[in-house]
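sry for the spam today, last one i promise. struct tokens for design, 573 residues
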């Protein structure tokens, strides 16, 4: 009986302990490698804090570490086969710091220069294109060296910066060529691979220069399609529907949105995205002005190929827990780790968009390097688990150009080079007319007037938002919101535009600018605030009288300011 009582007591205590918060010390990868004799690489070591690096001093001197956090008083036994390596980019790039002299002296330091030797490059090309009969090795190497030279002299990307071509750029072009050989001829595969890696991030003028270089330096037949042509009527452009059937479909229902208008520039951008998605290997960074359709293009393509679309919004306070997850309390009061949406997407093969990428802190973004690299792994520090992506997983990111938009940071060249970059330009005027007509159901004459108003307002600058540039008074989102109110007549078109554009401004003189531009382009419309608000307020009179009979609303005094606010909110609803 005493034994049975003791066993029952122990079982009861164990059950109680399960329901209490309990923490245990989990050894990290470095300590495990130290015990087991593994070789460990500290990647991007100069991104770590000085305090963290100084704690490794004894380890770098040939000693070990003591886990005082666990209460240990003895050092962890160091296996004789343990080796430690570190790598870093020079502290000449954004976010890269120099290491303290005392720490650098503890390493045997080696400088690895950029690979530019022709013989070495030819060996790289031969290795990647081993399945091709007589691969054009010399031509590819000559093109790569010329592209690097021109990038430093005359080429510019969509943000008017010099593009950065590296060995990773060349390797991805070659790897992609090898991957798509089952779908295209060798000439076409070569063209697709080098277009994807070297061309898509450039502005219009540089795109034409790079197009000429690809076609003149690489052995590509003249009849291979010129997909990057700026001529939207070019019948030789490979259309997006020739790529989509080649993309392996996901497990979601395939949805083709009738509301999504495929203009020529949108088709070209979708074509570039679909080209990368065909390989399912490389992350994609879409950079362009606000409201240019970056996120919506990825969403459209994801639904068209049956993949679940997930959007993660970044901000200046984004931390790694929003990506990877954190510990929470479950229903029994136990502390459990709940995985973040990025981990779920990696496991289940979602298409993820990291929106406004350059708003997130650099140290958070650099933690994703392992997932962005070609080995495609996601490490979760809290659980010490390494997650390998589902075969359908694709990572996209979007950002506005830094310098033109407030709060946007310049990403390091090393970080950006891990993406396949795509430049997305402003939607051309003719295509805007098409979208307003086909999607918003606005008469073409109204659409032309609205675009003319937008163009004139973009030449003005707000004194309160100097750094907003041409988007201070109106953006494309404002234009589409204006059109979706479906005004009836020129007078109503002017009034709806005033309600949407002028009433978000604080300064009366800036409201006057909006009124003048609207009345200039929408004659004979006249905008008088008192007349306008009285008219719209009368339309809500029946609803207001009903609310007045409801308890709690009878004390509202309908001043001019309250009528204005009620009308503005009512129009939005």
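last one done:
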């Amino acid at each position: 009986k005493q034994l049975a009582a003791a066993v029952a007591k122990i079982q009861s205590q164990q059950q109680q302990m399960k329901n209490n918060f309990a923490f245990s010390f989990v050894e990290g990868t470095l300590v495990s490698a130290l015990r087991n004799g593994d070789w460990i690489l500290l990647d991007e070591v100069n991104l770590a804090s000085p305090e963290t690096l100084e704690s490794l001093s004894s380890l770098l001197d040939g000693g070990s570490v003591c886990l005082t956090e666990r209460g240990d008083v003895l050092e962890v036994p160091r296996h004789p086969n343990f080796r430690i390596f570190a790598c870093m980019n020079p502290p000449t790039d954004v976010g890269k710091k120099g290491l303290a002299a005392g720490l650098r002296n503890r390493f045997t330091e080696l400088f690895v220069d950029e690979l530019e030797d022709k013989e070495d490059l030819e060996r790289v090309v031969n290795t990647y294109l081993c399945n091709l009969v007589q691969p054009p090795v010399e031509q590819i190497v000559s093109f790569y060296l010329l592209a690097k030279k021109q990038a430093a002299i005359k080429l510019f990307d969509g943000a008017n910066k010099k593009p950065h071509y590296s060995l990773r750029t060349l390797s991805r072009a070659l790897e992609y060529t090898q991957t798509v050989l089952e779908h295209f001829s060798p000439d076409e595969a070569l063209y697709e691979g080098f277009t994807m890696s070297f061309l898509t991030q450039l502005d219009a003028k540089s795109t034409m220069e790079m197009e000429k270089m690809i076609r003149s330096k690489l052995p590509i037949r003249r009849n291979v399609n010129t997909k990057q042509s700026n001529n939207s009527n070019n019948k030789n452009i490979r259309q997006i529907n020739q790529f989509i059937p080649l993309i392996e479909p996901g497990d979601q229902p395939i949805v083709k949105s009738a509301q999504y208008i495929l203009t020529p520039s949108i088709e070209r951008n979708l074509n570039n995205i679909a080209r990368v998605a065909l390989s399912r290997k490389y992350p994609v960074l879409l950079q362009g002005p606000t409201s240019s359709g970056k996120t919506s293009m990825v969403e459209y393509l994801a639904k068209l190929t049956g993949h679940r679309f997930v959007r993660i919004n970044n901000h200046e306070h984004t931390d790694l827990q929003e990506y990877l997850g954190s510990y929470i309390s479950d229903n029994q009061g136990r502390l459990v780790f709940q995985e973040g949406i990025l981990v779920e997407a990696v496991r289940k093969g979602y298409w993820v968009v990291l929106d406004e990428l350059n708003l997130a802190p650099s140290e958070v973004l650099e933690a994703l390097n392992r997932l962005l690299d070609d080995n495609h792994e996601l490490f979760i520090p809290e659980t010490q688990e390494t997650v390998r992506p589902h075969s359908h997983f694709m990572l996209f990111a979007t950002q506005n150009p830094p310098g033109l938009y407030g709060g946007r940071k310049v990403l390091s060249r090393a970080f950006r080079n891990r993406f396949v970059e795509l430049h997305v330009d402003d939607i051309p005027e003719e295509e805007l007319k098409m979208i307003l007509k086909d999607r918003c159901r606005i008469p073409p004459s109204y659409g032309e007037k609205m675009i003319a108003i937008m163009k004139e307002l973009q030449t003005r600058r707000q004194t309160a938002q100097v750094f907003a540039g041409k988007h201070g008074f109106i953006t494309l989102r404002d234009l589409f919101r204006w059109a979706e109110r479906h005004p009836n007549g020129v007078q109503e078109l002017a009034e709806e535009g005033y309600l949407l554009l002028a009433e978000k401004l604080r300064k009366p003189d800036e409201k006057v600018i909006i009124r003048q531009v609207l009345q200039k382009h929408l004659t004979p419309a006249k905008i008088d605030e008192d007349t306008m608000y009285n008219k719209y307020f009368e339309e809500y009179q029946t609803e207001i009288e009903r609310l007045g009979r409801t308890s709690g609303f009878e004390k509202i005094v309908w001043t001019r300011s309250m009528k204005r606010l009620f009308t503005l909110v009512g129009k939005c609803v």
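DSSP finds 25 helices and eleven strands in the chain. ok im logging off now
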